[in-house]
Design brief:
By secondary structure, the protein is α/β, with parallel strands linked by helices. It contains nine helices and twelve strands. It is globular and about 40 Å long.
């Protein structure tokens, strides 16, 4: 039996600059788990520009399960952020603490709320006051109802551009990092009226399978993808195993275009 979920039924379009999340367009958000170096960012920027991808993801502060793991460059990432802006790309970056909002506000085009912070309602309330678009990831143990209620915290302020992101949920399966829940993603889209994108990188955690999941998402009627890439994934400071190589991305994008063309949609 399907549980009743909260209905938001948002009617306004969601846009990041000229990039629109709607039934005609299918944005790609692509980049590394964490911004690491000039060399890393320059390689990725060159590839994204060649592929006509305008939204770049990149972590500045990272929440890590292991406290000894790389936690991000923090404010030292500012030169890398500036190079992304000079290249004309929109930066999507995770905010993990309300105290970071002031620093990020002039530099980030979309605030990302990670799975661990979906239940951080104080953070959501603060982000709602910025008026900037927010990408809200589903927590790995959240129901669709809880996910949509978290979105309501964001919609209760000047923020009216909210993008939902399915990134896999925790199940009994340990062969993959998480289990991609396209059921929940489609239900959230139908119930809320908000765009729902998918993060196949976190869902499966294995880079060789990310392209196939991405193609499935493009065929599903959902609204976009956020994916991790790295010039040298095996040397990445975080999430290297799930990060595609730049060559994999270059091979995937034409395939995505073919799938989207069948349904009358286009990348943006």
């Amino acid at each position: 039996m399907v549980n009743h979920v909260l209905s938001l039924k948002v009617k306004h379009p969601v846009a990041v600059g000229s990039i629109r999340f709607d039934q005609e367009h299918f944005p790609l958000i692509v980049g590394p788990c964490s911004l690491e170096s000039n060399k890393q960012v320059d390689h990725i920027l060159a590839t994204l520009n060649d592929l006509n991808i305008h939204l770049m993801r990149g972590g500045i502060w990272k929440l890590r399960t292991n406290p000894s793991s790389f936690q991000g460059l923090g404010t030292d990432a500012l030169p890398l952020i500036e190079s992304i802006k000079r290249a004309g790309l929109f930066l999507v970056s995770e905010v993990t603490d309300p105290r970071h909002i002031e620093f990020l506000l002039p530099h980030v085009s979309v605030f990302q709320v990670g799975a661990r912070n979906m239940y951080n309602y104080y953070l959501l309330k603060e982000l709602a006051q910025t008026g900037k678009p927010v990408l809200l990831k589903r927590s790995f143990a959240a129901t669709v109802d809880e996910w949509l209620k978290a979105a309501n915290y964001l919609l209760n302020g000047p923020c009216n551009h909210v993008i939902l992101c399915e990134r896999g949920i925790r199940t009994f399966e340990h062969g993959t990092r998480f289990t991609l829940d396209l059921n929940g993603a489609l239900l959230a889209k139908a119930q809320s009226g908000l765009p729902v994108i998918v993060d196949p990188s976190h869902a499966i955690g294995l880079r060789e399978f990310v392209p196939n999941l991405a193609l499935a998402v493009a065929a599903s009627g959902l609204d976009g993808l956020i994916m991790e890439v790295h010039p040298e994934p095996d040397q990445a400071l975080s999430d290297g195993r799930q990060s595609m190589t730049l060559q994999q991305l270059q091979e995937l994008v034409p395939q995505l275009d073919m799938v989207l063309n069948i349904s009358g949609r286009k990348r943006c």
